[in-house]
Amino acid sequence: MTANPHIRIFDTTLRDGEQSPGASMTHTEKLELASLMEDMGVDVIEAGFPAASDGDFAAVSAIAAQSKSAIICGLARSTPSDIERCAEAVKKAARPRIHTFISTSPVHMKHKLKMGPNAVLEAVGRSVAQARNHTDDVEWSAEDATRTDFDFLCKCIDVAIASGATTINVPDTVGYSHPDEYGALFRRLIENVPNSDKAIWSAHCHNDLGLAVANSISAVANGARQIECAINGLGERAGNAALEEVVMAMKVREDTLPFSTGINPIYLSRASAMVSRITGFPVQYNKAIVGKNAFAHESGIHQDGMLKNAETYEIMKPEDVGVAKTSLVMGKHSGRHAFRDKLESMGYFLEGDALNDAFKRFKTLADKKKHVFDDDIAVLVDDQLAAEGE
Ligand code: KIV
Ligand code: ZN
Fold first, then answer.
1. How far is the CA of 308 from the centre of ligand 1 (A)?
2. Ligand 1: which residue has its CA nearest to atom 8?
3. How far is Cα 331 from Cα 173, in angstroms, rounded to an integer?
4. What is the pLDDT, as a whole number, of residue 324?
5. How many A from CA of 236 to the centre of ligand 2?
6. Ligand nearest 202 Cα, by number?
7. Share of the chain above pLDDT 90, in %
8. Least distant ligand from the CA of 101
9. Ligand 1 site-directed mutation target among 204, 234, 236, 240, most atoms within 8 Å of CB
10. Reported pTM
11. pLDDT in the model for residue 1
């Protein structure tokens, strides 16, 4: 049996993620997070944008120096000074990468760069060649690729590969694509760009329409072999594709997405909690994989199913992603079966009328109170047992 193709996980929490307004991290926090990423099995850590500030430079250098196995990548615009600064920052890594980019869409070239297509093409070749003087691992990105003229995009990528780029990233910078469209773009590019097999193709999706994960998966199904993502989906504006979601989408649905990653999912909830603590950004309760409610069940029907067999309402095991266990939350939707199970876990073994009474009192309480805690249940049952004993 042949192994599934390996999808590289490129984590940009420390670069694109840190660009989220309000998400800045200290030097020590960045080192702590980078270390967890390596333990988790991230292939490429985008540690920062060294030319952006002295602090970013110092963080990228320190992460490079502490790295063991992961590729450590720094971002650089196509200017010579950015590339030199980036090369200096990543040089202590066992596996350094320079990631250089320039915009290729008409709107970006005209209004942001104020450059014509020929000047952009010249910058692509020059910047990639300069980066290659420092390392043989160079990634090139066409910023705003999904709003770029297809033929021009092919030309830029052709020049980047010919100049030595080993990874080609096709970002959906403004989160504009739909999954079919983004997947088709990869397929067409891989079919049309000369020497497309000389580079690894990478997806970098933003979540402005909530499609970043779906787009990334579609890219993989159409030839991409690297996904750029961030823990908790952190990133500019609505964020990047969430690392935990792309990883588990492939793991849980290996039947239709026969790909594998090097991520050990047991670390996912810890990584999510660490990013949330460091940035102060709470994780949405119903966030897939790592949200507080991702493995919580309140309705009686669901709780009953869960108590009979967890596969009724869970498609993955909570412990596989580092969550201690499923929780059956006691509320007004809970059923007798779950209530009894909860009582037993608390050391109360009620039967017959005593159980019926306690359940009735619990339902009355749950109608009045949003959260019914174990302590509430204990008081309710203790009162009942005391009254029965009188
Ligand atoms: O979204 C984007 O286009 C980027 C590039 C710099 C890769 O973050
Ligand atoms: Zn981005």
1. 47
2. 16
3. 42
4. 85
5. 7
6. 1
7. 96
8. 1
9. 204
10. 0.94
11. 63
Matching residue, tokens 């993955």 = 316
Q: Tell me which residues of the chain have a pLDDT lower than 50.
A: none
95-109 tens-digit pLDDT: 999 999 999 999 999
**SS in 3 state form for the chain?**
CCCCCECEEEECCCCCHHHCCCCCCCHHHHHHHHHHHHHHCCCEEEEECCCCCHHHHHHHHHHHHHCCCCEEEEEECCCHHHHHHHHHHHCCCCCEEEEEEEECCHHHHHHHHCCCHHHHHHHHHHHHHHHHCCCCCEEEEEECHHHCCHHHHHHHHHHHHHCCCCEEEEEECCCCCCHHHHHHHHHHHHHHCCCHHHCEEEEEEECCCCCHHHHHHHHHHCCCCEEEEEHHHCCCCCCECEHHHHHHHHHHCCCCCCCECCCCHHHHHHHHHHHHHHHCCCCCCCCCCCCCCCCEECCHHHHHHHHHCHHHCCCCCHHHHCCCCCEECCCCCCCHHHHHHHHHHCCCCCCHHHHHHHHHHHHHHHHHCCCCCHHHHHHHHHHHHHHHHC
Q: Which amino acid is at 116?
A: G
In this prediction the ipTM stands at 0.99
Counting Cβ atoms within 10 Å, is residue 111 exposed (0-12), middle (13-18) or buried (19+)?
A: exposed
Q: 173 CB less than 6 Å from ligand 1?
A: yes
